[in-house]
Amino acid sequence: HGTMLWLHVQGEGYHLLAPTLAIHVYTHREVHGTVGSQVTLACSFWSSEWISEDVSITWLFQPESGKDTISIFHFVKGQPYVDEVGAFKNRMEWVGDPHRKDGSIIIRNLDYTDNGTFTCDVKNPPDIGGKSSQVTLYVFEKVPIRYGVVLGAVIAGVLGLVILVVVIGYLIRYCWLRRQATLQRQLSAMEKGKLQRSAKDSSKRGRQPPVLYAMLDHSRSTKSASEKKSKGGLGESRKDKK
């Protein structure tokens, strides 16, 4: 991206000087407009040097049906100049700002004769190396269907992707919540089963003493009955003896 300058001094050989960086200019590859409308020809640049008062911006135009390139705009010494010769002299507006590294222009009231290639060239002394950048303008009676279809397809694709991501997110959240609810129910069922088993065990333990008491009462009643019978038998035996 840069070039090295070598200085030859007699008797000293070659000495390496500081490298010089080339200026970089950027434009769109192509822009589209319709007859009677306006279009912005954007141009930006990057320079390794501070933007000086000597910065210059030049726009050139080569018609689609021609081979010659003509100059249509200059920005020099802080002032914009539209060339008085040519079809753009009353239809061009400077909207750039070199201090923001912007050299854009606007062309109004487009016509078919504006079809062609526009070149943006920037110099910022001492940074004057580098290549210019070109943008091709296509002027139509109306925007071609193919561009509208492509734009609609791109927008639809982006919206579809966003919707798909949202749906997937909701599905993941729904499945997670459902799983959590299932686990909660299982834990609740397990806790309920434990409580029921503990209640049954406690009820069994609570019913054991009455059974023992009943058994004791039954043994006591049986003992008393047997004692009565034995007493009765003794009485009868005594009576018989008499």
TrEMBL record:
Segments for region (Disordered): 194-242
Q: Which residues cross the membrane?
A: 147-172
Q: Name one GO biological process term.
A: myelination
Q: Where in the cell is it found?
A: Cell membrane
Q: How does it sit in the membrane?
A: Single-pass type I membrane protein
Reading the lineage from the top rank, the first entry is: Eukaryota
Where does this protein have compositionally biased stretches of type Basic and acidic residues? 194-204, 217-242
Supply the InterPro entries for this chain: Ig-like_dom, Ig-like_dom_sf, Ig-like_fold, Ig_sub, Ig_V-set, Myelin_P0-rel, MYP0_C
GO CC, alphabetical: plasma membrane
- Where does it primarily localize? membrane
The record's annotation in Pfam families points to:
Myelin-PO_C, V-set
Sequence ranges assigned to domain Ig-like in this UniProt record: 19-138
Q: Which keywords does this chain's UniProt record carry?
A: Cell membrane, Disulfide bond, Glycoprotein, Immunoglobulin domain, Membrane, Signal, Transmembrane, Transmembrane helix
Question: Which PANTHER family would you find in this protein's record?
Answer: MYELIN P0 RELATED, MYELIN PROTEIN P0
Q: Which family does it belong to?
A: Belongs to the myelin P0 protein family.
Q: What is this protein called?
A: Myelin protein P0
Provenance organism: Chelydra serpentina (Snapping turtle)
